[in-house]
Amino acid sequence: MKLGVNIDHIAVLREARKIADPNPMDALGIVKRAGAEQITIHLREDRRHIQDADAINIIKHSPLPINLECAMANEIIDIVCDLKPHRVTLVPEKREEVTTEGGLNILGEQPLLNATIQRLQDNEIEVSLFIDPTLENIQTSKELGVEWIEFHTGKYANVYAMLYGNLANTHHTIPELDLSRKVLTIILEEELTNLRVLSGDAMELGLKVAAGHGLNYQNVEAINEIETIEELNIGQSIIARSVWVGLEQAILDMKALLIR
User: Fold this and answer.
1) Where do the domains of the chain lie?
2) Among 221, 242, 254, 257, CA closest to 9
3) pLDDT tens digits for 133-167?
4) What fold characterizes domain 2-153+205-257?
5) Is 42 one of the catalytic residues?
6) How far is the CA of 120 from the CAs of 24, 86, 228, in angstroms?
7) Catalytic-role residue among 42, 152, 191, 231
8) Which residue has the higher pLDDT, 154 or 173?
9) Which among 49, 69, 150, 231 is annotated as catalytic?
10) CB atoms within 10 A of CB 166
11) Cα 68 to Cα 88: distance, rounded to the nearest angstrom
12) Is 152 tagged catalytic?
Protein backbone atom coordinates (compact mmCIF):
# COMPACT_ATOMS: atom_id res chain seq x y z
CA MET A 1 0.00 0.00 0.00
CA LYS A 2 1.31 3.44 -0.94
CA LEU A 3 1.07 6.17 1.67
CA GLY A 4 0.41 9.83 1.01
CA VAL A 5 1.04 11.95 4.10
CA ASN A 6 -1.21 14.99 4.38
CA ILE A 7 0.75 17.79 6.07
CA ASP A 8 -2.12 20.31 6.34
CA HIS A 9 -2.25 20.02 10.13
CA ILE A 10 1.28 21.33 10.45
CA ALA A 11 -0.03 24.50 8.84
CA VAL A 12 -3.11 24.38 11.11
CA LEU A 13 -0.80 24.66 14.14
CA ARG A 14 1.11 27.53 12.54
CA GLU A 15 -2.04 29.43 11.62
CA ALA A 16 -3.34 29.13 15.19
CA ARG A 17 -0.82 31.83 16.11
CA LYS A 18 -0.33 33.40 12.66
CA ILE A 19 3.43 33.03 12.89
CA ALA A 20 6.09 31.27 10.83
CA ASP A 21 6.46 28.15 12.95
CA PRO A 22 6.03 25.26 12.38
CA ASN A 23 6.82 25.45 8.68
CA PRO A 24 5.28 22.65 6.54
CA MET A 25 8.38 22.83 4.34
CA ASP A 26 10.40 21.27 7.15
CA ALA A 27 8.33 18.09 6.81
CA LEU A 28 9.30 17.33 3.22
CA GLY A 29 12.60 15.56 3.83
CA ILE A 30 11.25 13.76 6.90
CA VAL A 31 8.27 12.36 4.98
CA LYS A 32 10.55 11.02 2.26
CA ARG A 33 13.06 9.59 4.73
CA ALA A 34 10.29 7.74 6.54
CA GLY A 35 9.30 5.95 3.33
CA ALA A 36 6.05 7.64 2.28
CA GLU A 37 5.38 7.76 -1.43
CA GLN A 38 3.53 11.06 -1.68
CA ILE A 39 2.80 14.35 0.08
CA THR A 40 -0.77 15.62 0.11
CA ILE A 41 -1.88 19.20 0.74
CA HIS A 42 -5.26 20.93 0.50
CA LEU A 43 -5.31 24.49 -0.81
CA ARG A 44 -8.70 25.60 0.47
CA GLU A 45 -10.58 28.65 -0.76
CA ASP A 46 -10.63 30.04 2.79
CA ARG A 47 -6.87 29.40 3.22
CA ARG A 48 -7.43 28.11 6.76
CA HIS A 49 -4.15 26.19 6.72
CA ILE A 50 -2.06 25.80 3.56
CA GLN A 51 -1.33 29.20 2.00
CA ASP A 52 -0.42 30.05 -1.59
CA ALA A 53 3.25 30.45 -0.67
CA ASP A 54 3.19 27.00 0.98
CA ALA A 55 1.81 25.41 -2.15
CA ILE A 56 4.37 27.15 -4.36
CA ASN A 57 7.35 26.18 -2.20
CA ILE A 58 6.20 22.63 -1.46
CA ILE A 59 5.57 21.81 -5.11
CA LYS A 60 8.86 23.42 -6.15
CA HIS A 61 11.05 21.72 -3.55
CA SER A 62 9.34 18.45 -2.60
CA PRO A 63 11.41 15.30 -3.19
CA LEU A 64 8.11 13.39 -3.48
CA PRO A 65 5.12 13.78 -5.83
CA ILE A 66 2.53 16.27 -4.62
CA ASN A 67 -1.17 15.45 -4.52
CA LEU A 68 -2.97 18.79 -4.22
CA GLU A 69 -6.56 18.67 -3.05
CA CYS A 70 -8.79 21.56 -4.09
CA ALA A 71 -12.29 22.64 -4.98
CA MET A 72 -13.45 23.51 -8.48
CA ALA A 73 -13.17 27.27 -7.92
CA ASN A 74 -11.75 29.22 -10.86
CA GLU A 75 -9.28 31.10 -8.67
CA ILE A 76 -7.88 27.87 -7.23
CA ILE A 77 -7.75 26.06 -10.57
CA ASP A 78 -5.84 29.03 -12.03
CA ILE A 79 -3.22 28.65 -9.30
CA VAL A 80 -3.05 24.88 -9.69
CA CYS A 81 -2.53 25.07 -13.44
CA ASP A 82 0.39 27.45 -12.86
CA LEU A 83 1.96 25.26 -10.17
CA LYS A 84 1.44 21.92 -11.97
CA PRO A 85 1.52 19.42 -9.08
CA HIS A 86 1.79 15.76 -9.97
CA ARG A 87 -1.89 15.18 -9.17
CA VAL A 88 -4.96 17.19 -8.30
CA THR A 89 -7.72 15.60 -6.24
CA LEU A 90 -10.95 17.51 -6.69
CA VAL A 91 -12.94 17.73 -3.45
CA PRO A 92 -16.08 19.53 -2.24
CA GLU A 93 -15.75 22.42 0.19
CA LYS A 94 -18.03 24.20 2.63
CA ARG A 95 -16.95 27.23 4.63
CA GLU A 96 -18.59 25.99 7.83
CA GLU A 97 -17.20 22.44 7.77
CA VAL A 98 -14.42 21.37 10.12
CA THR A 99 -13.14 18.88 7.56
CA THR A 100 -14.37 17.50 4.23
CA GLU A 101 -17.71 15.89 5.05
CA GLY A 102 -18.26 13.73 1.98
CA GLY A 103 -17.47 13.11 -1.63
CA LEU A 104 -18.14 15.25 -4.68
CA ASN A 105 -21.63 15.50 -6.09
CA ILE A 106 -20.34 14.30 -9.42
CA LEU A 107 -23.79 13.42 -10.78
CA GLY A 108 -25.00 16.98 -10.28
CA GLU A 109 -21.87 18.85 -11.37
CA GLN A 110 -20.83 17.09 -14.55
CA PRO A 111 -20.55 20.19 -16.81
CA LEU A 112 -18.24 21.95 -14.33
CA LEU A 113 -16.32 18.73 -13.68
CA ASN A 114 -15.83 18.14 -17.41
CA ALA A 115 -14.43 21.61 -17.93
CA THR A 116 -12.18 21.47 -14.85
CA ILE A 117 -10.83 18.01 -15.60
CA GLN A 118 -10.10 18.92 -19.21
CA ARG A 119 -8.25 22.04 -18.15
CA LEU A 120 -6.12 20.16 -15.63
CA GLN A 121 -5.31 17.37 -18.07
CA ASP A 122 -4.42 19.92 -20.75
CA ASN A 123 -1.82 21.15 -18.25
CA GLU A 124 -0.50 17.57 -17.88
CA ILE A 125 -1.83 17.18 -14.35
CA GLU A 126 -3.15 13.81 -13.23
CA VAL A 127 -6.73 14.06 -11.90
CA SER A 128 -8.47 12.22 -9.07
CA LEU A 129 -12.04 12.62 -7.84
CA PHE A 130 -12.87 12.37 -4.13
CA ILE A 131 -16.12 10.39 -4.11
CA ASP A 132 -18.45 8.50 -1.85
CA PRO A 133 -18.15 4.77 -2.60
CA THR A 134 -21.07 3.99 -4.91
CA LEU A 135 -21.14 2.19 -8.25
CA GLU A 136 -22.83 5.14 -9.93
CA ASN A 137 -20.06 7.48 -8.79
CA ILE A 138 -17.42 5.08 -10.10
CA GLN A 139 -19.09 4.74 -13.49
CA THR A 140 -19.50 8.50 -13.79
CA SER A 141 -15.85 9.03 -12.83
CA LYS A 142 -14.84 6.68 -15.63
CA GLU A 143 -17.03 8.59 -18.09
CA LEU A 144 -15.38 11.83 -16.97
CA GLY A 145 -12.00 10.45 -18.03
CA VAL A 146 -10.03 10.76 -14.80
CA GLU A 147 -7.10 8.52 -13.90
CA TRP A 148 -7.85 8.12 -10.19
CA ILE A 149 -10.70 8.04 -7.72
CA GLU A 150 -10.35 8.38 -3.95
CA PHE A 151 -13.01 6.85 -1.74
CA HIS A 152 -14.21 8.94 1.20
CA THR A 153 -13.85 6.52 4.14
CA GLY A 154 -15.58 8.74 6.69
CA LYS A 155 -18.54 6.39 7.22
CA TYR A 156 -16.24 3.43 7.88
CA ALA A 157 -14.10 5.49 10.28
CA ASN A 158 -17.11 6.85 12.15
CA VAL A 159 -18.72 3.44 12.63
CA TYR A 160 -15.38 1.97 13.73
CA ALA A 161 -15.01 4.72 16.33
CA MET A 162 -18.53 4.13 17.63
CA LEU A 163 -17.99 0.39 17.85
CA TYR A 164 -14.52 0.35 19.38
CA GLY A 165 -14.61 3.68 21.16
CA ASN A 166 -17.28 4.63 23.68
CA LEU A 167 -19.32 1.45 23.37
CA ALA A 168 -16.27 -0.80 23.67
CA ASN A 169 -15.31 0.91 26.90
CA THR A 170 -18.63 0.32 28.66
CA HIS A 171 -18.26 -2.68 30.99
CA HIS A 172 -21.88 -3.64 31.51
CA THR A 173 -24.54 -5.67 29.72
CA ILE A 174 -27.35 -3.24 29.06
CA PRO A 175 -29.41 -4.92 26.28
CA GLU A 176 -29.60 -1.72 24.23
CA LEU A 177 -25.80 -1.47 24.18
CA ASP A 178 -25.44 -5.11 23.17
CA LEU A 179 -27.88 -4.50 20.32
CA SER A 180 -25.95 -1.40 19.30
CA ARG A 181 -22.74 -3.42 19.14
CA LYS A 182 -24.37 -6.02 16.92
CA VAL A 183 -25.85 -3.40 14.61
CA LEU A 184 -22.61 -1.46 14.38
CA THR A 185 -20.65 -4.64 13.67
CA ILE A 186 -22.99 -5.43 10.79
CA ILE A 187 -22.73 -1.89 9.41
CA LEU A 188 -18.94 -1.95 9.67
CA GLU A 189 -18.69 -5.25 7.79
CA GLU A 190 -21.10 -3.99 5.15
CA GLU A 191 -19.02 -0.88 4.64
CA LEU A 192 -15.81 -2.90 4.29
CA THR A 193 -17.51 -5.23 1.82
CA ASN A 194 -18.78 -2.25 -0.13
CA LEU A 195 -15.28 -0.74 -0.32
CA ARG A 196 -13.81 -4.10 -1.34
CA VAL A 197 -16.36 -4.79 -4.09
CA LEU A 198 -16.42 -1.26 -5.48
CA SER A 199 -12.65 -0.88 -5.56
CA GLY A 200 -12.55 -4.08 -7.59
CA ASP A 201 -15.21 -2.70 -9.94
CA ALA A 202 -13.21 0.51 -10.35
CA MET A 203 -10.02 -1.41 -11.12
CA GLU A 204 -11.83 -3.44 -13.78
CA LEU A 205 -12.88 -0.14 -15.39
CA GLY A 206 -9.24 0.94 -15.51
CA LEU A 207 -9.37 3.41 -12.62
CA LYS A 208 -6.71 3.60 -9.92
CA VAL A 209 -8.17 3.62 -6.43
CA ALA A 210 -7.07 5.56 -3.36
CA ALA A 211 -8.87 6.02 -0.05
CA GLY A 212 -8.80 8.48 2.81
CA HIS A 213 -10.58 10.38 5.56
CA GLY A 214 -10.64 9.44 9.20
CA LEU A 215 -8.09 6.65 8.82
CA ASN A 216 -5.81 6.09 11.81
CA TYR A 217 -3.57 3.56 13.53
CA GLN A 218 -6.55 1.64 14.92
CA ASN A 219 -8.77 1.30 11.85
CA VAL A 220 -6.39 1.23 8.90
CA GLU A 221 -5.46 -2.45 8.82
CA ALA A 222 -8.82 -3.66 7.50
CA ILE A 223 -8.60 -1.12 4.67
CA ASN A 224 -5.03 -2.22 3.95
CA GLU A 225 -6.33 -5.75 3.32
CA ILE A 226 -8.33 -4.52 0.31
CA GLU A 227 -5.75 -5.18 -2.38
CA THR A 228 -7.54 -3.22 -5.10
CA ILE A 229 -7.01 -0.03 -3.07
CA GLU A 230 -3.44 0.97 -3.82
CA GLU A 231 -2.98 4.25 -1.95
CA LEU A 232 -4.08 5.83 1.31
CA ASN A 233 -3.89 9.55 2.10
CA ILE A 234 -3.66 10.09 5.85
CA GLY A 235 -2.94 13.28 7.75
CA GLN A 236 -4.51 14.16 11.09
CA SER A 237 -3.73 10.90 12.91
CA ILE A 238 -0.08 10.94 11.76
CA ILE A 239 0.47 14.58 12.72
CA ALA A 240 -1.27 13.99 16.07
CA ARG A 241 0.99 11.03 16.85
CA SER A 242 4.05 13.02 15.84
CA VAL A 243 3.51 15.28 18.87
CA TRP A 244 4.54 12.33 21.04
CA VAL A 245 6.99 10.33 18.92
CA GLY A 246 8.16 12.73 16.21
CA LEU A 247 7.03 12.91 12.59
CA GLU A 248 9.44 10.35 11.20
CA GLN A 249 8.50 7.71 13.77
CA ALA A 250 4.80 8.44 13.33
CA ILE A 251 5.10 7.78 9.60
CA LEU A 252 7.20 4.66 10.18
CA ASP A 253 4.54 3.38 12.59
CA MET A 254 1.85 3.88 9.94
CA LYS A 255 3.96 2.32 7.20
CA ALA A 256 4.41 -0.76 9.41
CA LEU A 257 0.64 -1.24 9.36
CA LEU A 258 0.51 -1.03 5.56
CA ILE A 259 2.78 -3.98 4.77
CA ARG A 260 1.11 -6.50 2.48
Assistant:
1) 2-153+205-257
2) 242
3) 999 999 999 999 999 999 999 999 999 998 888 54
4) TIM Barrel (3.20.20)
5) yes
6) 25, 11, 26
7) 42
8) 154
9) 69
10) 10
11) 5
12) no
